[in-house]
Amino acid sequence: MFDLASHAVKTGDKLGARFVEARVDDLSSREIRTEMAEVKDVKTMRRLGVGVTVYHNGATGYSFTAHLSKKAVEDATEKAFRIAKASSEIAKVKVDPGEGKRHKQKELRLTVRKHPQDFQLTSKKDLVLRTVNAAEDHGKHISSMTCRYGELFGQKYFTNSEGTEISWSPLLVDLRIQVVSKTGDLFVDGADGIGGSCGLELFDTEEHSPEKIGANAGEWAAEKLTAKPAPAGKHRALCENRLTGVLAHESFGHLAESDFVTSGMSPLAGKVGEELGSKHATIIDEGTLDTSRYYGFWLPFDDQGTKTAKTTLVDKGKLVGYLHDRSTATLMKSSFTGNARAVNYNFPPIVRMKNTYFSPGDLSLEEAMEQLGTGIYALSTAGGQANMDGTFMFKALRGYYVEKGEQKYPLREVTLTGSILDFLKNIEGATKELFVSSGYFGGCGKDEQWPLPVGLGGPHLLIREVQFGGEK
Amino acid sequence: MMKDELDRIADELSSLAELGIKKAKAKGAKESEVFVSNVNTLSISIKTGAVVTRQGTSLGVGIRVVLGKKVGFAATSGVDEAAIERTAQEAVDVARIRPLDPKFNHLSDPVKIASKDGIMDNRVLGLSETDALKEVSTLSKTAFEYDKRIKALFGGIVVQKGAFAVANSRAVAGCSKGAGVGGGVYLTAVERGKQKTGSESVDTRKLVSFSDVGSKAAQRAIRMLESKPLRKSLRTTVVWENVAIAPLLQGMLNQASNARNVQEGKSFFKDKLGQKVASGIFTALDDGQLPEGLQTFRVDTEGIPLQTTNLIEKGVLKGYIYDSYSAIQEHKKSTGSASRNWPEPFLSTPIIQTTNLVLKPGAKDLDGLTREVDEGVLVTDFVMGSGHANMTTGEFSVVAPSAFLIEKGEVKNPLEPVTIAGNFFNSLKNITNIGSDSKITGAGKIPSLIMTDLSVSG
Fold first, then answer.
1. For chain B, what is the radius of gyration of the CA atoms?
2. Are the CB atoms for B355 and B286 separated by under 8 Å?
3. Which DSSP letter does residue A18 get?
4. pTM
5. Is A105 on the interface with B (CB under 8 A)?
6. Which CATH number is B3-225 given?
7. Which of A452, B101, B240, B353 has a CA-to-CA distance to A461 between 20 and 30 Å?
8. Separation in Å, CA of B176 to nearest CA in chain A
9. What is the residue range of A283's domain?
């Protein structure tokens, strides 16, 4: 595979390109989906192709092919060169890849006990069915249930004009279930799941066993049958790890992506050194977390062959950095952070996150609950969206009304809205545990590229004046 | 690329699909379906002057095989004979380890109805990267020239042309092609530290000029700079601009009309055929044959002709949409609603999806609708959170960055972001008027409309 990638680089250099990056992505994935207890979908997919980026006169062109011949790679490189040249004529802002370190690292891979590639689909089907059975046992008035297992693995090969040569093996497993319960016209849902760069031993742990995941989803849906809608208005909130992860990624992380910064789109542009949040707000983006403790996505190198860094974005409230690809780092005279990522060979790398999380603080969960006093305990996420002006809306999957530090009753339709910049200022405390997870399902989307595996997480965060939506 | 070249690709794909069925049969799968696609994308993105261009062809094959009542699926990029052979084998291996699906009877049988591809414009097929780059340059320039408070812009143009073929061992053989171009801009205006966003996009099968896309987006952002907070929560009337409501409307009706969801208890429209589910002025079709529709094809991704299905007529629920699996459960015919994810449809198994959701338009434009409202809120541009609404129950809570106060039929000041919440299916009954300004988007052809009694807070 390195032959093909090197051939692209040689072809581009010969054409007079400023710089060439070539990669071969060979990614396989498998999915199992059940509806109630019926296995509805079993799929295996493989995407194998070559992608070439050519830099010329301050613009880039990217072309790709599924044909693995030298001729096809040559054609793609010529095309990339031609469109880079044409693009340079309208580009007002010139991009340059700068100078990077030359790396030679082949066949990097995580050591796991049960690599999904070594296990038959039957054993994964059993994981799914065990989850479904547990959900059925613990649920009430279940009207539908969808359980999914997904895995991703393969090889990525990279080379560039600097002579860097890297190959590594991405890995991701994911098991999740959604349960819908119904009484009369009222539908409510409960969901749980876990994913990360792990072997299948992840599901052998008690906490993340199919039995536990299924039971949680079943119970949480059942509990919502008697839940009250969240009271609209401003409340003090305690946000649980997965929810703070979404806030770190979705509402803050994207604003720190340097293509949004250099283009002036992000409200964080020009604000390095400013106090944006309270002293409890520290946000990190990291490539390779300790996989024995966290379930993030393991990313040793990005798709421009840059070794991934541990990047601090916000340090005790102060904005200290952005996420870069080579061009934006060069433009802003910053060091490379290893955030250039492409979802597959159809796309060029663009600035993306790695594993983004709030750093833990020093509170125990009991202390945090006590400090919350009266307010809303919001957990996990059913998705959300953020706008470039910093406003966001997120749905928590679960919520409880808390009075005097005690959980009183469950809530449904728990929607948080606000502006991330206000939100950071209003953080009153963080708990001491850190939880990070990733997933095969529901990765990150940007421009045309979706779903990119990312990790996200954090501790519990205590925040004042959070706007909750919902019907009045 | 011209129309005849796309025709040639479609023919080639059809013979590859037939070849795949032979390969699957040789591997022991008497029943199989082979889907092959070839989609060329030219995508140019501009981010405040920095340009990234990408072009290439995504192609591959997806094979479903049936062994007894066990169904397996495998897919791979690339379409050479070896790839097809390997994928057929993998699909067979997957099917072998699958439990029986007692509800799976067989793959689709041929359905004979006349159907056509949508409009094909040679100017779109022949659009060169140089032409497209010129359009992108103009689109960016008109935005920045509109007002000096426009500070940042993300925009671009995507040209996509492609074909797919699908065949199965029960004599279904179909192919379809399409080509379209889309241009869009998302930008920010900044004044005295206040930052506002605006967006505009045009998606079309016929080549148009994108020159005013930039200025329209700019206009949307600039007018929000005067926004004031609402500072209260109220139940009131909401006038939704077409682009603001289209994603929510499509998401909800798609989920509720989906026959598989009905069968699995995930649809709000379950057991409601023939009942009143919406206001009497509300008529919605799923029109897979709308010539200008972006989702128009001759056949769906199971090879069944696309057609027009009545979903709701004058407020009364008339029908659901089916793929072959869900149709067979009810001894019905598929409505041609099996869809796979663009631009690599070969990688996925079919799911039920509306094609072009078309709402019957009314007589008034957006201004006319607004003038009818004594007190309420006008929601324009995109809203956040449409995709995260609960499509089963209809509960939604969205944030509108571009809303205005309406008083006595007049549009007053723009508002700081407001949250709008309600139950979509209850709100369908509270639609008091529908506009004449239908807009073509990926969702279909949807006009502006008025919904009363929603919760608005900010």
1. 24
2. yes
3. S
4. 0.94
5. no
6. 3.30.2290.10
7. A452
8. 22
9. 228-468
